[in-house]
Design a protein that fits this description.
- The chain has about 350 residues and is of the alpha+beta class.
- The chain is about 70% helix and about 10% strand.
- Strands 2-3-1-4 form a 4-stranded antiparallel beta sheet.
- Helix 10 packs antiparallel against helix 11.
Length: about 350
Amino acid sequence: MTDARSARPDDSFDLVLFLWERRRLILGITLLGLVAGVAAAFIIRPLYKSEVILFPAITNSVSKALLTEQSTGRDDILALGDAEDAEQLLQVLNSDLIRERTSTTFDLMRAYRIKPDSRTRNTDLREAFRDHITFEYTKFGSVRVEVLHPQPDTAALIANYIAAQVDSVWKDMVRERAEKGLQLVAEKVGKLEREIAAIEDSMRVLRQLGVHDYHTQTERYNEYLGAAIVKGDQRAVREFEERFKVLAQFGGAYVTLQDRQFNEVKRLSVMRMKLEQAQADHESDLPHKFVVNQAQPADKKSYPVRWLVVAVSTISAFLLALLLIVVQENVRKIKTRHGH
């Protein structure tokens, strides 16, 4: 029992005293981390941030917005888009086409220090692009384009360039569909015009034969024939009977052509309106976004935050020193137990 009591003071552990005895190691490693953090803060290449704020437009079709009489609720070219429109805008911003155009225009491969002959250069470029250029949907329904670049002027130029490319990429994306739609409608209009011209030619032949307006002529001939019969004018009666024969022979064809002409002209009017809408969509330069803030060159770097780098490095070194001491003490205890 006496041995057990006498062993207790030796087994007691004082953390402060324990750390104080190893203060040189802790202080040395912490100072080393501090120096490393200061060096890293000045070695890391500074980056400057520029941003553009965009709002999506609510409509993407100028024909629906301006040339259609029926209102759909999404045809106001001055209205801001909703969350769905913002998601579409984000998809365009994240497209490969915008990344490739931006990378080529501003030589981002060299700016990001990617070797052109590297086998993973395309993957490295995509990852660097994603790290330096971000697109974010804000709580206000807008889209923020943020660009980090070693040169503040270039950062602003890249941000404004990307915002400007939205309309260009969108137009390129829908151009093929718009061209095919325009071609289809134009062919249909041409076909209807040829059919109407053929109908008019046939009706012109019938007019030369004496059929001008079947219903009106029939009504008038009946009226004149009745008057001739009352007067006893046989010559007039025979003349009107001959004209009735012409109407009887060609009147049906004339009525059919007249009805067909009416329907085809009506269809042609509708198709010409669609052609006008297709031409408007094909030639449209209507912006697909509203630019709230243009990017401006930053006068202060955004990365790295030097005090944060130094603080993180110093705290990490301090924690590393504590970890080393714990490991060292545990190893000493294990050796002591095995030694006994």
